[in-house]
Amino acid sequence: MATLYIFGIGGTGSRVIRSLTMLLAAGVELQNCNRVVPIIIDPDALNGDKQRTIELLKTYQRLRQQLRPAPEAGQFFHTEIATLASMAATSGQERDPRVKETFEYNFSGMDEPLRDYLHYNSLPVETKHLVDLLFDPKSLNEPLTVGFKGSPNVGSVVLNQLMNSPEIEFFANGFGPDDRVFFISSIFGGTGAAGFPLLLKNLRNPKGNLAKKHLLNTAPMGALTVLPYFDLKSDETSSIDSNTFITKTKAALAYYQRNLPDLNSLYYVGDQAQKQQENREGGNQQRNDAHFVELVGALSVLDFMRQPAAVLQNDTHFYEYGLERDDMEVRFESFDPNQTRPLLGPALTRFKFFATWLEHHFPETDDAVYAKNINLKSAWQTAPFFRDLRRFLFDYNSPEGQPISFKSWLRELRDNARHFVPFRLDEADFDKIVQGQEVKKGFFNSDTISRSYVRERLDKQLRKVTEAEAPGEFVRAFSEVMEDVVDAKVPGF
Question: Which InterPro entries does its entry note (predicted)?
């Protein structure tokens, strides 16, 4: 079983993983592997973007674990998402109690300023002079609690502890011959700009201390580096100034040009249509709305995984992304009709139809055969699987300030600077949900998508299902029915 390890570094890493998780939930296929292990690296323990993504991943994981039989390719929640710790069961390793059952790397000793982290007062005089040359007094006295505040020089020092951690040791011990690695980071901040090249260099080090060096030196490794795509409001009290984003990007690009020779694929994405965000240095308040650039960033992971390993290992490949049309309001027709549109259009539409049926039409059909057979009315309110499904789709019972749902993700994409508006979000009529698409004529002798047809298909497929089988068969049946409806009714994909 091939595994893709994704290192999501900093806030941008978390936000791109959030978009990728939504695509995987919709059944978008990740080729050449059937399991993803996200490892989020962010020293800001309370970062709102990170915490929201972790909640989403945990909810996806719980849903996927209850689906038996496992969903087939193209069906909702097909791809397994696992924690690093859970890999012990499949890699033959003993469970390391130091590696926690979580999607984030556990930083320690980050409640102190950089000065104390470096044990500045105990350093030799010559070393103190060097530190004073490299770091200004403000950087030395800044607490590390909320990360590196856009300073890669600080990040490069602190993040070196990663390579001696039990998490990296456990990752290397379990790395398999068909596994791959992908890094996601921004290039204009602190954590991502520092963490990505440092991790790549150490994982590729043939003289390092990691196990499976022979595999890590030849495994396909790709990366997404996100260029500036948002602006920050001016704040004289903040250490982060978005006016420096371009300068930092140019400096980092020059460094990447000289120091990333062992990377197989490097993807660049950014946007000049930038919404001004609140200037928050970190913590729970740093929670940005989903952005179209992050959705495109998730596509880079899909593209990397569809490439044969032999092709990737020939040379370093560089990629950029462009829309078919430079629309400020992006619909499915804004995408390339041969690549992105058929990849995203059908899957997201099927998942949106699924969510629409459960949000708007489920109460109308709670007396249907399929609903009665699996006691769906009661299970929808009380069963753990269906509670998690409601949370994943509609923000049911989400923690305060942490809307993780598919619906909130689409809403945020709609309201950002470059609006992604493939759907009318609150529309209950299937025929009107997809923006810019007219319903194809002649479907079951009707000009509309027939709700009675959906109900009849579900009745037929779930007629003999027991309550114990309900989660897996419920999702499988909806995946198949919605696939038929979308393929038959929605043109242009």
Answer: Tubulin/FtsZ_GTPase_sf
